[in-house]
Amino acid sequence: MATKNLSTSGFTYSYDFIKNETSTFSPIFIVNGAFQSMKSWKHIIAVLKDQYSIIVADLPGWGDSDLLPSIYDFDMYNEFIREILLEESIDRINLLSCSFGTLIATRFAKSHPSLIDSLILCSPILKIKKSLRKQYPEMKNIIEVQNSEELSRFLCKIGLINCKAGAKGKIEHFSTLFERFQKMISRCNPNELGKFLENTNRIMNFPEPNLKEIAGLRSMVLSGKYDEFTSAKECQKVAAQFDSCDLHLVPKSDHMFLHERPVYSAQKVDGFIKSMRKASEHVVGKKMLSLKAS
């Protein structure tokens, strides 16, 4: 596996393609959430790579890839993802996104539904809540003065990590992960802070999408049981917009459930994709029996 770089419409970005030559499933394409990069998915990939080919990308705005100014809306990402699929000659994917990546995944699914086998939304965000919009100027000021330590405290305050549930022992390995989270944010350099701000601006400026146009896609929503940032109720509303959507709350976790319970989460993704295969085979089998009977 070697990281590849592409340049589309003047923006350079990178991705890894972990190939599984024996897999009979469509590859899983992973879209990052805030402060994630390709490296963030190593524990998830470790569980899934024996069954699936996996593409993990640092699209513009993430990792070492170029910053994408917020004057470009989420449709711009359609070009980046499409270019990767063309480069690797891939015609269908299971598209998995996390948090801030929700709008990238749903917009791509809307533009290219024929390329999607399934849509997996982890802690989905379709809009910034009113309560958070009111606190946006405070966060913007913290980022502009490049105070990463203060940003870490701010993100905890708005519920990106659930300190109350963690202190009560309801979140697995909370103390270790909380310390790791604070260190990660406090070490963000100006370039990383700038990307986070532009990505936040993009969501702030984008109208909440109507998912009716992709409601027919087979989908799953995953959320941490103690997530305060994208609550179970909000995730239920997202899932309800699809004709067929599995909703699963990951126990002992919050918005960071992919880091808190990576093996459990990856197993849910695996089970979901395999259940779709079984359901599809069942439908085909019934059609064959019907044809024979006629």
Characterize the structure shown.
The protein is of the alpha/beta class. The chain is about 45% helix and about 15% strand. It has a single domain (about 5-130, about 210-294), classed as Rossmann fold, CATH 3.40.50.1820. Strands 1-2-4-3-5-6-7-8 form an 8-stranded mixed β-sheet, sandwiched between helices. Helix 1 links the parallel strand 3 (about 30) and strand 4.
Low-confidence parts, pLDDT < 50 over ≥5 residues?
Answer: 282-288
CATH topology: Rossmann fold
Return the string of H and E elements. EEEHEHEHEHHHHHEHEHH
CATH architecture: 3-Layer(aba) Sandwich
User: For the largest beta sheet, what order do the strands appear in spatially?
Assistant: 1-2-4-3-5-6-7-8
Beta-sheet strand percentage?
15-25%
Gyration radius, in Å: 19 Å
Structural category: alpha/beta
Query: What percent of the residues sit in helical stretches (DSSP H or I)?
Result: 40-55%
Task: Classify the oligomer.
Answer: single chain
Q: What is the assigned CATH homologous superfamily? A: Alpha/Beta hydrolase fold, catalytic domain
**Which CATH C-level class is it?**
Alpha Beta
- Largest sheet composition: 8 strands, mixed
Q: Would you report the number of β strands?
A: 8
The number of helices is 11
Outline type? globular
Please indicate the count of domains.
Answer: 1
